[in-house]
Amino acid sequence: MKTIAFLSALVLGASISGIAEAQTRRSAPSYGYVFGEYDYYSGGGNTLNGGGLGAGWRFNRYFAAQIGGQYSRKSGWDITNGYAEGLVHLLPVGSRVSLYGSIGGAYASNSQNTPLGTVSISRGGYRAGVGGEYWFASQWSLRASYHRQNTFAVYDDIGVGIGYRF
Question: DSSP string spanning 74-140?
Answer without folding.
Answer: ETTEEEEEEEEEEEEEEEE-SSSEEEEEEEEEEEEEEEEEETTEEEEEEEEEEEEEEEEEEESSSSE
